Amino acid sequence: MTIVSRLRSWEGFLLGALVAIIAVNASLSPEFLTVANQINLFQLSIEKIIVALMMTLIIVNAEIDLSVGSMMGLSACAFGWLFQQGIPAGAAMAICLGVGVAGGAVNGYFITRVGLPSLVVTLATLIGFRGLARVLVEDRGITDFPEWFDRLGQAGLIGPLPFALLAFAVLFVCLWIILQLSGFGRKTYVIGTNREVAEYAGIDTARHKMTLFIASGAISAFAGLLYAARVGAVRGDVALGFELDIITIVLLGGVSIFGGTGTMIGTLLAILIVLNLRNGMALLNITGHIQTGVIGILLIASVIAPRFNLALFPARSPGPSGQIKD
Amino acid sequence: MLHRISPQTLRILALFAVLVAVILFFSTQVPNYLNGRLFNRISSSVAIMALIATAQTLVILTRNIDLSIGSVVGFVAFATGSLITGHPDLAPLVLVCYSIMLGAVFGIINGLLVAFARVPAIIATLGTMALFRSALVEYSDAKSITASNLPDWLVSFPNIVLLQIGQLQLRAAFVTALIVVIAVHFALTRLRPARKLYAIGSNPEAAQMAGINVRMTVFAAFVMAGALAGLAGFMFLARFGTITVVAGLGFELKSVAAAVVGGVNIFGGSGTVIGALIGAILVDLIDTSLVRWQLVSEFWREAVLGALILIAVATDTIMMRRLTALRQAREHRKAVSEFIATKQKRAGS
Predict the structure, then answer these.
(1) Thinking of the domain A11-321, which architecture would CATH place it in?
(2) CB contact residues (below 8 A), chain A span 195-214, against chain B
(3) Which of A86, B76, B204, B257 is the most buried (most CB within 10 A)?
(4) Considering CB atoms only, which of B126, B245, B300 is closest to A299?
(5) CATH number for domain B2-301, candidates 3.40.50, 1.10.1740, 2.60.40, 1.10.3470
(6) φ, ψ dihedrals at A157, nearest 5°
(7) Which residues are CB-contacts of B137 (< 8 A; sequence separation ≥ 6)?
(8) What is the ipTM of this complex?
(9) pLDDT score at B1
(10) Can you give the pTM of this predicted structure?
């Protein structure tokens, strides 16, 4: 692949868009390019973008996990509840990660063993996990966590870089290696492209999907803990509706909803675009709801735009991963 | 006996049995449960949900999904409310038509994106869900609609009692929803154009080869769903009176849940709106009853609901798989015995 054709790919387009957005933002406000603003920009949606990384693998695998937002809420609420029962914060965190694994296993069980579509299963657990979170904290808010826990979410760990941002970076590198370089990643693509073929090729697709959903549950639970640490309080509606934002980011990154295509780099670029775009719009005093609307337009455009690209440069303009998208 | 009933009818009977079982269970748990007030309460709150579940069913049947329904309901409720606040002497029929048309316009946008621009429905409607909601925020200009500014006929409409049998009241909102559901049901089971929805959902390529205009039909399904969501928006306004920018938030997933509990296949091609209606009633019944059940706190509502959806869909899938296997086995046996019979006949002659 030459540099030109690489730039014409979806990732190239995202990169161009990102540079343009950053340039506009930088010209709008001198504050924009400061380290503090850049870290703040990540911090405000750090939990969502962490889950978006794992969601990339799930969607490449031609599945979907709608329950991530509720799992984040459940994990945060379980932490608050356990802490209130007098369990030390460290142990409570470990239990919450266990809850994430269990929740992911429930999703995985119904999807792989019972054979239900993931859209339905995770829609049900979206409601169910949220319900459990509400059972735990009812309509109270739980706060007064130990100081070290709050500091974990708010203060810098290495220099100005907070723990969550470092966790995001580490997770990105790990998942990038897993998806793009490892055999597990190749299997993820193959199953996502054609499950039956993968089955005949001797891949244990049920087990593969189970692993992915358990990982998704665990990472969502982890992100929920980060949320509790950053905000310093939990309520029943923690991370309500996050799932749609997360899926939007992943799809914007060029991951096909039908599975089989998309890259970790694409998701990273989409994360940066969404964060910078929201930050830029906030600088222009555009409210959150309108920002979401703009992201919505962007999402639809991201599906239609490559097709125009295809019309302009026929046969020479592959979509993500060299496959022509339609 | 079992094989004489079609799977769809069987499914509705099973749902009905579950409904009765749930009612019986709660009547042993909650004092003074089984009375006319229960019926009246459920029937008024289910009216809106029945409409959006029907709308969602139309779209799901064609292998698509409409996640923008909640935003459409919210926008239409607000826009209709602000129209009637500005022109209080508008005729009721004009207002209803306005709601339906407005909803249909949103449906047209979705339909164009999905059927003609060929954006996958889940992406297109995820985008328009955000878009329509932000359009509402912009349009509302940080104001809200209040019931005191609405004309009396509108606020009292949902509670007009059309027919009273003992304590049971058939109220206008429920009757409207019921009429719509039954009309759509008859269209889906009897009318040729509506049968195309099933054909497309079962196998889009085959439907195309059979001469069905797939794009136009999918487009029409989205427009119909938008129109029904518009009507639901009108009912929402009439029932609640006070409309803010969060009106209808979360309805998209609730409507999918009601349809799926009602046996509509999420991958299209099978399901009935009667099923979706019973699904909506079941969800609403459990929601309302758990609040009154002393043994568990009301915070269990969502947890139970999630488990219910999972169990309902799992049971349905397993049952249908068994049923298909049974049917195949029977047909196989029949074929074998016929084969043997013809052979014996030949040997005899």
Answers:
(1) Orthogonal Bundle (1.10)
(2) none
(3) B76
(4) B126
(5) 1.10.3470
(6) -100, -55
(7) A287, A289, A290, A293, B245
(8) 0.80
(9) 53
(10) 0.85
